[in-house]
């Protein structure tokens, strides 16, 4: 189809040089796709390079401790991706002898691999005609064809998947998939797309009807839950503190954090002491951040306070200040550690 040819021609001239575009090795393609889920390329690229350097093969990644993988992932968010990445690496290395499945159907069975990632790997590595569908593709197709079906609805996903599967270049699926995603990322951008230089402008529905800002359509998500987190940063007179492993399922699973008290609303110092066992052993309590740090996740907003608690008697096993950098922690805690600078206590 003409649209496919136009997109591929545009891509061959305008594509960015990215390391995972110079290989058909499924390990590198898979690694890049997992890292880039819900992540922009400029943010994900340093992580990709770090993982390739640290774990050059799926066997290296499989043999790594999970905590080391989480530490390398630190700051990228959505940590379930890292846990799934590690679990899948172990499965491929130890159960499939290091060989990735070579088709969409089998790739889809891997932990952490959905429709988009399976399509990307199948087409980029094995030239399978499997059309990708991500945010960029939704946007390009919705605008070009004037599709008002919400992209996050079941009907919308089916509609767009059928359309892109019909459009894909059967002889060159890899370049088509790369082209339509790159076109959405560079040309048909979410805000202020470059319509004056767009090769599709004359036949684009949204451009003709002046509906660029109305497409694609997306139904509103539920309002995020509001939670109040109070982290207890114990400081002993021998330069130790407390970290706990967050083992329950949910956000930050298997990452480390300071002891946490979650409250139904914001609390003050007096109220905090009512939550703390052995409060009589505390010498001094102070609030590090006068205003809560708002950490926004897709489904919840965390209003976070860090309470500095000085005591000469810590209630459980401790961590020396000098060892704090060894632990994988959520970015909100990493930012606090950098700001507090435990080194000043040493």
From TrEMBL:
Domain spans labelled HhH-GPD: 35-186
EC class: hydrolase
Recite the UniProt keywords alphabetically: 4Fe-4S, DNA damage, DNA repair, Glycosidase, Hydrolase, Iron, Iron-sulfur, Metal-binding
- Look up the domain of life of the source: Bacteria
As recorded in UniProt, its EC number(s) are 3.2.2.31
The catalysed reaction is: Hydrolyzes free adenine bases from 7,8-dihydro-8-oxoguanine:adenine mismatched double-stranded DNA, leaving an apurinic site
For this chain, one GO molecular function annotation is:
purine-specific mismatch base pair DNA N-glycosylase activity
Q: Which residues cross the membrane?
A: none
Against Pfam families, the record matches this protein to: HHH, HhH-GPD, NUDIX_4
Cofactor entry? [4Fe-4S] cluster
Per UniProt, the cofactor note for this protein states: Binds 1 [4Fe-4S] cluster.
Q: What does this protein do?
A: Adenine glycosylase active on G-A mispairs. MutY also corrects error-prone DNA synthesis past GO lesions which are due to the oxidatively damaged form of guanine: 7,8-dihydro-8-oxoguanine (8-oxo-dGTP).
Would you identify the family this protein belongs to, as annotated? Belongs to the Nth/MutY family.
The name of this protein is Adenine DNA glycosylase
Q: Could you tell me which species this protein originates from?
A: Bizionia sediminis
